[in-house]
Design goal:
By secondary structure, the chain is mainly alpha-helical. It is built from 12 helices and 3 strands. 70% of the residues lie in helices and 4% in strands. Helix 5 packs antiparallel against helix 6, helix 6 packs antiparallel against helix 7 and helix 8 packs antiparallel against helix 10. Keywords: Membrane, Transmembrane, Transmembrane helix.
């Protein structure tokens, strides 16, 4: 390639292009360490022991994909750290490994969003509304994933020197659609769950309100990072579509696989967190009601006392080990009458 087609960049210019990529890569690697710690802690909990093979397979699959992505990110650091050329094309074309990284991120996001979307749908008792909500969440997730495929295809084409648009959309358009889609999907799952949870349980008694507040904090914290980083990546992609600031989006895009993995593990650990944080209060609440006959056998799938949806009934777990895993992270919020037609 001639010097005219591949002009040399100054140190400052190359740093402006490479810097955001490396910063995002280092954040991803740091967060990967947290995902390992969370997985180790999760495997030592009763939630993991009671989980079905499907739930465990999802956790391992997401962790495996996140590990592969982290390995690719480490390769990016090695590539740019040892790259002898200073030509603009040598830098922005990247490597084939870098070009296919988006598809791994897309698969991780798709698995986590569908899993949490299905689990959160369990709080909705009307079957039609439940399936309608899940189909809506699934549609948003699939649209985002299709945009991710477009990003991956155009990245591979660009690496190989082909500058065509795939299906008539530019790389920036696909990237914006992908990141905004991820952001919207995370918001829909979190906001819908919190609204229904508050509507169903708030105001029962002090224990219920304390638990709901704790769940609110955990859910918001779990979803905030993926939502915020996806939104910032989308904003950067649209605000800076040209060099030298084009790569700013990778500062927020590269850490997303670990953030989605942490979101999944945090959500699955909600029951243990509730039990540890409110366990003493729940035990006192149980003891105060046991003598009055207000305790009845039933399922409390988070491993804590079943939060009542009626003031006169508190359900405790008498046979938890035989409760299906499906929806355990959210099942407790459905209340004792899961077969009625009301929300």
């Amino acid at each position: 390639m001639s010097d005219e087609a591949n002009p040399l960049l100054s140190q400052l210019e190359s740093d402006q292009i490479i810097g955001p990529v490396l910063l995002g890569a280092m954040v991803q690697i740091a967060l990967f360490g947290f995902t390992i710690s969370h997985l180790i802690n999760l495997r030592s909990t009763q939630t993991w022991i009671r989980s079905s093979g499907g739930t465990r397979a999802i956790c391992w699959a997401v962790m495996l994909l996140n590990t592969a992505f982290t390995g690719m990110i480490a390769h990016d650091i090695w590539h740019y750290g040892t790259l002898p050329q200073r030509g603009i094309y040598d830098i922005i074309a990247g490597t084939l490994v870098q070009a296919v990284e988006p598809i791994l991120l897309g698969v991780v996001a798709l698995i986590v969003q569908l899993t949490l979307g299905w689990r959160s749908s369990r709080i909705i008792q009307r079957p039609r509304l439940r399936w309608g909500y899940f189909v809506f969440v699934g549609t948003l997730s699939v649209i985002s994933f299709l945009a991710c495929i477009g990003v991956t295809i155009e990245s591979v084409w660009f690496h190989r020197g082909r500058y065509d648009s795939f299906a008539g959309l530019s790389f920036t358009s696909y990237l914006g659609l992908w990141m905004w889609g991820e952001c919207l999907t995370d918001l829909v799952i979190t906001v819908t769950y919190l609204i229904l949870l508050r509507r169903r349980l708030w105001g029962q008694n002090e224990i219920v309100d304390s638990t709901v507040q704790l769940i609110f904090r955990l859910m918001v914290r779990s979803a905030a990072y993926t939502t915020l980083f996806a939104m910032l990546a989308a904003v950067m992609a649209q605000a800076f579509p040209e060099l030298p600031y084009y790569d700013l989006l990778y500062t927020f895009c590269n850490p997303l696989p670990s953030l989605y993995t942490l979101s999944l593990f945090t959500t699955l650990s909600i029951g243990e967190t509730v039990q540890k944080t409110l366990g003493s209060n729940v035990s006192q609440f149980q003891a105060s009601h046991a003598s009055t006959g207000h305790l009845s056998a039933g399922a409390a799938p988070l491993g804590v006392t079943q939060i009542p949806t009626r003031p006169i009934s508190v359900r405790v777990d008498s046979n938890y080990g035989q409760v299906p895993d499906e929806g355990k992270a959210f099942e407790w919020a459905r209340g004792p009458s899961s077969r009625d037609d009301s929300l």
